[in-house]
Write a structure and sequence with these properties.
The complex is a heterodimer of chains A (282) and B (202).
Chain A lengths: L8 H15 L8 H14 L5 H10 L3 H9 L10 H19 L2 E6 L5 H13 L5 E7 L2 H8 L2 E3 L3 H12 L13 E4 L2 E4 L7 E5 L11 E6 L8 H13 L1 E9 L14 E5 L4 E4 L3
Parallel strand pairs in A: 1-2, 1-7, 2-6, 7-8
Antiparallel strand pairs in A: 3-5, 4-5, 8-10, 9-10
Chain B lengths: L12 E6 L4 H10 L8 E5 L9 H8 L4 E2 L5 E2 L5 E3 L5 E5 L3 E5 L11 H12 L3 E5 L8 H9 L3 E5 L8 H9 L4 E3 L1 H19 L1
Parallel strand pairs in B: 1-2, 1-8, 2-5, 3-5, 8-9, 9-10
Antiparallel strand pairs in B: 4-7, 6-7
Helix pairs in contact in B: 1-6, 3-4, 4-5
Classes of the chains: A alpha/beta (282), B alpha/beta (202).
Chain lengths: 282, 202
């Protein structure tokens, strides 16, 4: 944060109104602090100096809008974030679904650059269930979806990713774990085996405006709704709920909670530490 | 009543930032804070990114009141001590709640002190007290500047006393802070703030 520009709520309102009118996206109910900071980040990045300039550019340059979306959305992610979550997923949640259905359908809602999807397919592969899986991964940002489709992860993040992987499954014994067996180094990129993504479909989808499009056994929406205010969280949760089979599972971020959501009574807590819920009512 | 710091009763919140070498000072402050301290306290301390549990427990051992890591959109309660959770930025939202974020690291940190301070300054304006303790980088300097710009009160731990003084010095270089205090004086200040706030709420 370099500039000392003050962005007022009225500025943000003018901006979200323009975007709604011109592009159909609705950012009105994004959480104020992070959204304001993302706006400021864009203004700094493009040296716009003022909100008015940003509004003017968005108004007159439609080709800029996709870039804007890429910068506004948060695309910080890592493989096997919260290793203990992945352990629970592998030992309890996935076996439970397979036991009952013999198949597993998964939706990664807000998949960003695909690290969570790669983590999932590696777990499924190691369990021998990759063939039984149908995975849809969606994000609002086209550029990041295209990035995710390449199945590549920046080499500089791989140490952390590997550390998480070992923290999750290192205690299972056998040979020392290393993600290396799943990718090739190409320059500064680690490109994962394409076969891992054989049952994965990446698709552009906006959680805010998008319709419910299918039903799943397991929905992961971790650290996505933190960028929404409570009104929008309620709306999106309702959609996630509709997108789940009865007795399906929902995973949210470790510091997110359903407690104060309208729809909380339709779920039970399966694992409070890892924030895994089960849908018990339609 | 003897008043060394002439603390106003207008303040609504306290934000504390610290990094390397601040743990002892924080512990001491929390131990001396009155049980019924009336303002919320937002603490952003640099911590191991991937160690999720244990830190609040460690801080709570000596603290006069429990320290909690808030959930996203948790309502702010008077007198509650909040600690930014591991691997999340913690911000103050309009409408009396706390929000979390997994955005890019700032100053190599998530949680970043600048993030908490800047958003707290935005919401509480001149009703915020910002306290920056010992630390090894410049995180918090920008945040202190924002608190000052919004009319809040800025306090930096005396670099002479700080185990690692890069952070206090960075803030002092960027902003004309209101007070440079040792930990014991920060505690004296907070006790006066406690009294002033209680008086104001009568």
């Amino acid at each position: 944060m370099s500039t000392e520009l003050d962005i007022e709520i009225t500025d943000i309102r003018r901006l979200t109104d323009l975007i709604k009118d011109k592009y159909g996206y609705d950012f009105k109910d994004y959480a104020m602090s992070s959204f304001r900071r993302r706006i400021k980040r864009v203004i700094d990045l493009y040296k716009f100096k003022t909100v008015d300039k940003l509004i003017q550019v968005l108004d007159t340059t439609p080709s800029f809008f996709e870039e804007f979306i890429s910068e506004i959305t948060v695309n910080v992610t890592e493989m096997f974030r919260d290793p203990t979550f992945w352990k629970v997923l592998k030992e309890q949640i996935i076996p439970n679904i397979i036991l009952n259905h013999d198949r597993i359908s998964i939706w990664h809602a807000g998949c960003s650059s695909g690290e969570e999807v790669l983590s999932m397919v590696i777990v499924l592969h190691e369990m021998g269930f990759l063939d039984k899986a149908k995975i849809i991964a969606t994000d609002i940002d086209t550029a990041i979806i295209n990035r995710a489709k390449t199945a590549s992860v920046s080499l500089k993040n791989m140490e952390l990713n590997n550390r998480n992987y070992i923290a999750a499954f290192g205690s299972e014994g056998g040979a020392a774990l290393n993600l290396k067996k799943y990718f090739r180094d190409i320059g500064q990129e680690c490109v994962f085996e394409k076969s891992l993504l054989q049952n994965v479909t990446y698709r552009k989808h906006d959680l805010v405006q998008g319709a419910v499009f299918s039903k799943f056994d397991l929905v992961l929406c971790r650290n996505v709704m933190i960028y929404f205010n409570q009104t929008l969280q309620n709306e999106v949760l309702t959609k996630l709920h509709e997108s789940m089979f009865k007795y399906g599972y929902l995973a949210i971020g470790s510091k997110e909670s359903l407690i104060w959501c309208d729809i909380a009574s339709k779920f039970i807590v399966v694992n409070n530490e890892e924030k895994i819920y089960k849908k018990i009512k339609d | 009543m003897f008043s060394k710091y002439k603390v106003s009763g207008k303040y609504k919140a306290v934000a504390i930032g610290g990094s390397a070498g601040s743990f002892q000072g924080i512990n001491k402050i929390l131990a001396e804070l009155p049980k019924d301290f009336p303002l919320p306290v937002f603490m952003c301390l640099h911590r191991l990114k991937h160690v999720r549990s244990g830190f609040t427990e460690a801080l709570s051992i000596k603290s006069s009141k429990p320290v909690i890591e808030p959930y996203d959109k948790e309502t702010i309660r008077r007198g509650q001590i909040y600690l930014a959770p591991a691997n999340y930025h913690m911000s103050i939202e309009l409408g009396n709640s706390i929000a979390l974020s997994t955005e890019e690291m700032e100053n190599n940190s998530r949680p970043a002190i600048d993030y908490t301070f800047e958003t707290a300054a935005y919401v509480f304006r001149d009703k915020l007290v910002g306290i920056l303790l010992s630390g090894a980088n410049k995180d918090g300097a920008y945040g202190m500047m924002r608190i000052k710009q919004k009319g809040g009160l800025t306090i930096v731990q005396d670099p002479e006393e700080s185990t690692i003084n890069a952070m206090p010095n960075a803030a002092l270089a960027q902003t004309k802070v209101d007070m440079i205090l040792k930990v014991d004086e920060i505690i004296e200040f907070l006790l006066e703030l406690d009294k002033a706030s209680k008086m104001a709420q009568l």
